Amino acid sequence: MNLLLRVFFIIILCICYKYIPVFEPKGINYLLSILCLGFIGFEFKKLWSSLFISESKKIKIQKIAYFSLIVLILISVILIVHKEYPAGNIRFIRGFLILICIGIGAKIVGIFSKSSINAFLKNSLLFTYSTISFTAIIEIIFMFISLSHGSGEAYSGKIWGNRNWNPINKLGFRDEEPKNGKNTVFFVGDSFTAGWGVKKIEERFGEVAASELKKQGKGINEINLGRYGADTRLEYHIFETFIKKTQIKPKHIVLQYFVNDMDKLIPNNLKCDLPPLNLPNWKKTMIEGSYLANYISNIYPSQNNYNLPKECDYLEKLKSVFNNDSLWKKEEVQLAKFQSYCLQNNIEATIVFFPFMEDLNLAKKLGIEKRVRLFCKKNNIYLLNVTELITKIPRQKRQVSIVDSHASSEVHNIVGKQLAKIIKWKF
Question: What pTM did the predictor assign?
Answer without folding.
Answer: 0.79
